[in-house]
Design a protein that fits this description.
Blueprint lengths: L7 E5 L7 H10 L4 E7 L16 E4 L2 E4 L3 H12 L5 E8 L12 H11 L4 E6 L7 H5 L8 H13 L5 H4 L2 E6 L10 E3 L8 E6 L2 E6 L1 H7 L9 H6 L3 E6 L9 H8 L3 H4 L6
Parallel strand pairs: 1-2, 1-5, 2-4, 5-6, 6-7, 8-11
Antiparallel strand pairs: 3-4, 7-11, 9-10
Helix pairs in contact: 1-5, 2-3
Subcellular location: Cytoplasm
GO cellular component, one term: cytoplasm
Cofactor: a divalent metal cation
């Protein structure tokens, strides 16, 4: 491929532009295209598709650091800072973004969703890091090399997915790589988001602790997710690739049709006493 044919890749994330996962993708993707970083200046994890009206932009050696959210970065990048981008890649996130319930929370995934609404192929990339949320988890995946496997998988998909017609059907790919510290190669699997939901809340005096028990279950392998789901693939050591669409889907419900057709404001309005 000649230099003129190299794709322009807008790279963003939610862990911040200085994170090792971001740098790992930047280095890997720079071997196959022109990479322009447009990423948050600091950690913006789990902000979903929160959007600002005005953000500060600072030049950075990898592109631009934005004082805003991942969705801000996607909009600012595609409309102003990198308008010619052929693809948007968000990641690599420290921590998996798997399961249907996570998709709307994740800043990483939200950047890909925002990009898809612009009609630009997008990919969200995350690394499963076992260990819950304690000190052990924080110490892991702190070096660029820890993301090598995820970066290699991302490069493979970025190089081949457009020509394979993947984005004729999918608006974006949600990619999750397993934890493989030694960096050995892993297989890929096309998956669907798991529907497992195991949130609980426990009151402690004046506080309520919100606990996602899924992560502990993943570490022990105690998950009911069937074969073909993103969580099952990652727990068993495979790279999960979920082809997804950006707009919320709708289904035809005859019961709802009848309910709406039968609506009579006068008959259903509550009486008001003087």
């Amino acid at each position: 491929m000649s230099a003129s044919d190299d794709p322009q890749i807008l790279l963003t994330n939610d862990d911040g532009i200085e994170s090792p996962g971001f740098r790992a993708l930047y280095d890997a993707l720079s071997e196959i295209g022109e990479v322009v970083g447009v990423a948050p200046a600091d950690d913006q994890s789990a902000v979903g598709r929160t959007l600002s009206r005005r953000v500060e932009v600072h030049d950075h050696e990898l592109g631009y650091a934005i004082a805003g959210t991942p969705a801000d970065c996607a909009v600012a990048g595609l409309e102003s800072l990198c308008p010619g981008a052929d693809m948007v890649v968000a990641g690599c996130n420290k921590g998996a973004n798997i399961g249907a319930y996570v998709l709307g929370r994740s800043g990483t995934v939200s950047a890909a969703v925002e990009s898809a609404f612009f009609g630009v192929p997008a990919m969200a990339v995350s690394l499963y890091v076992p260990g819950g949320s304690g000190d052990d988890w924080r110490r892991k995946a702190s070096d660029i090399d820890d993301y090598r496997g995820a970066a290699e998988a991302t490069r493979y998909l970025v190089e081949r997915a457009p020509d394979a017609g993947v984005f004729d059907e999918a608006d974006y790919l949600n990619v999750n790589a397993p934890w493989v510290p030694e960096g050995r190669a892993t297989r890929m699997e096309v998956t669907r988001p798991s529907t497992l939901y195991d949130m609980t809340a426990e009151r402690d005096g004046d506080h309520v602790d919100l606990i996602d028990r899924t992560w502990d279950r993943m570490e022990t392998g105690d998950i009911p997710d069937p074969v073909g789901t993103d969580r099952r693939a990652v727990v068993e050591g495979r790279v999960s690739v979920s082809p997804l669409t950006a707009p919320h889907t709708t289904r035809h419900h005859e019961g709802l049709d009848g309910l709406v057709d039968g609506y009579d404001p006068g008959a259903t309005a509550p009486s008001v006493e003087d």
